[in-house]
Specification:
The chain is an alpha+beta fold. The chain has one domain. It has 2 helices and 4 strands, in the order E-E-H-E-H-E.
């Protein structure tokens, strides 16, 4: 069985009146990426997928699987 490839996702966090934040997360699924950011987000924050990242950008930022990175 082939191992699922990891993808890089951009996850937005919105909690007015604060400025919106965007995190880059390397995860196997979008649901996993959302869960990782939701764990860090404050109570009442809205968390949503903002987009994806190209493999080149992942290499440049030296992103590793695991915790989200504020971008």
């Amino acid at each position: 069985m082939k191992k699922q490839e990891r993808q890089a996702y951009l996850i937005g966090v919105d909690l007015p009146p604060q400025a919106s934040r965007v995190y880059a997360v390397v995860a196997e699924t979008v649901e996993d990426a959302l869960a990782r950011v939701e764990a860090l987000a404050e109570e009442g924050a809205s968390v949503s997928v903002a987009g994806g990242m190209a493999a080149d950008m992942v290499r440049r930022l030296k992103l590793k699987p695991g915790g989200p990175r504020l971008v």
